[in-house]
Amino acid sequence: MTERTSRTVLLRGGSVYSPADPFATAMLVEGEHIAWVGSDGAAEAYADVADEIVELDGALVTPAFVDAHVHATSAGLALTGLDLTGCPSLGEALERIAGFARTAGRAGGPAGVLIGHGWDETGWAEGRPPTLAELDAAAGGAALYLSRTDVHSGLASTALRALTPGLDAVPGHSADGPLTRDAHHAVRRAALAHLTPEQRRAAQRATLARAAALGIGSLHECAGPDISSEQDLTDLLALAGQGDTPEVFGYWGELGGVEAARRLGAVGAGGDLFVDGALGSHTACLHTPYEDAPHTGTAYLTAEQVADHVAACTEAGLQAGFHAIGDAALTAVLDGVRAAADRVGPARVKALRHRVEHAEALDDKAVAAFVELGLVASVQPAFDATWGGSEGMYAQRLGAERAAGLNPFAALLRAGVPLAFGSDAPVTALDPWGTVRAAAFHRTPEHRISVRAAFTAHTRGGWRALGRDQDGVLVPGAVASYAVWSAGELVVQTPDSRVAGWSTDPRSGTPGLPDLTPGAPLPVCRRTVVRGRTVHQA
Length: 538
Description:
single chain, alpha/beta, five-stranded mixed sheet, 20 helices
């Protein structure tokens, strides 16, 4: 049962982050919309008509965050089950797998499929994942699927491989090691097919509850036949439609999937429509070979296929989108979108704001093409925080010089490319303030952006990626989706002293945000409200 949305709520005695009034301390909400923003003194006029008065006691009120790229079921399975993220060694991973198998038994469904996530061999002394024999022994003979941290390769026990007919003939198959490409997609489909409706619902609820507790009011679910299933997407949209959770907007990543996207209730035919894989799995598609492997990765789509998909989506008035990480994959996307624009008209293509997910290996020419074609960059700053730096996984895969060019947020922002921030959960955790921090304190200093710009990309940017420019801000008439935070001193943080200047002077009227200096505590969410409904209360 959700609360009635026609109520009038007055919040006062705090700080309200609003472009309508940079010094606002109070806000009035009527039903699903914000009615007024201003000072505590002026708020007295509304106290008698409010159904509820929220005394903020100095708390900060901001727009609710938007996570623009998630996989809710997989993220929920990691939250509620076996999560190997940060596991320090191969031996520890095998111990955790064995413990999970003992406690979970064969509760994963009729065939006893167990599902886990997050292993990453790059930080292990052995420098390798478990062998098939080690995996079977730890799993106790159960069917087990373990996605790598980037979700672009996976481990499958012998019992799960037996549930995937013809696996040994599928591209990406390995008799003893991780499965990649189509073989990985096949075993993932087999594993997820054995989830019961109850398990799926529990996982999805866990993700939505976690999001709400972190001040996230909206998520973009990036579904598709190679990442989840039609049933998974429709179940998630139905769950979110009950109104007691964050909102969910679904994307369906299937080539030529315009009609499927519409039938499923998706807002776009994109998301994780794979043009390539991921750097950690050596499947991101590059122009130049990897530093630590004698190949250039994997190309799933050609520029011609991209063009056909974008043209079809544009003709149908539906947003398209692609997963592209490596520079060669991004070239294919940009060439394809440009070819589609030649067919159906550049203005029509730009109007739909087609999306590129991840978009990591961008040079100046590619950034300019994003502007030319009106593309949205749906990006994940936590990728840099997790794998960037001179000693990180990116440097292992590409060498330090090439790795330093990844995730150029400042260049994108300067050029005017719309940014929408997300987590790609479970690849990295739901962590909105951590995401803002990761962009503001990028491991490569020249790619850093201000906290204010990063916050905008993680709030209003997610709405703009949906074509809804009016949402994601606390101004009269806007949707009342907001979060209340316990936070310390509010400041204006910029990448470095060269760009501080007037914006950090109190006289500028620039509204402050929490201090996100690395090591400082992050804000704690006290309340999350979505369209006037409270979905989290601490």
